[in-house]
Amino acid sequence: MGFFSTLGSKISHEAHHLGQKAQSVSKKVVKISDVVGKVASGIAAGAGTLAAGAAMVGAEPVAAGLLAVAGGAKGVQGLASGVSAGARALGRAGAAADFGGHAIDDIRKGNIKGAVEMGKEAVLSAKQSGQLAQSVKKQIERKK
């Protein structure tokens, strides 16, 4: 094996490995942040209901405390949705790197048609990642 063949092999292996790792981490973060968001939503709803009940019976200080808990839970829910969207963008970027690694492998094997297809998939995945990143940026700017 020549120098460039070895170099291409190493680059494609690392691109594939990093893409797979990014996708794996992304899936785990999305799953966890979605669960955190659902739990926070339930806490906010429960605390809001309890606050309404406390206000009806004349326990306004308790109602104020429960409303603070509900507000905090809504904040956690919003943060979890932002983390989830960011993780999805990371997953798409990882997919782009993975497709890039496959394209390099196809070029090394002489499969130009396959390399072009993988290149198209990499570009599409990178565009989707950019769009997700833009939506996360807008969501963060709205929260400020």
Give a description of the structure.
The chain has 144 residues and is mainly alpha-helical. It has one domain (15-143). 94% of the residues lie in helices and 0% in strands. The chain has helices spanning 3-56, 60-109, 112-143. It is rod-shaped. The termini are far apart. The model has no long low-confidence stretch (mean pLDDT 82).
In short:
This protein has 144 residues and is mainly α. It is 94% helix and 0% strand.
Question: Mind describing the biggest β-sheet?
Answer: none
Overall domain count: 1
* Uncertain residue ranges: none
* Share of β-strand residues: under 5%
Bulk shape: rod-shaped
First and last CA, distance: 55 Å
- By secondary-structure content and strand pairing, the structural class works out as mainly alpha
In helices, the fraction of residues equals: over 70%
Individual helix count: 3
Order of helices and strands: HHH
Can you give the mean pLDDT?
82
> Over the alpha carbons, how many angstroms does the gyration radius reach?
23 Å
Give the arrangement of secondary structure elements:
Blueprint: H1 3-56, H2 60-109, H3 112-143
Helix pairs in contact: 1-2, 2-3
What key attributes describe this structure?
3 helices, 144 residues, single chain, mainly alpha, 0% strand
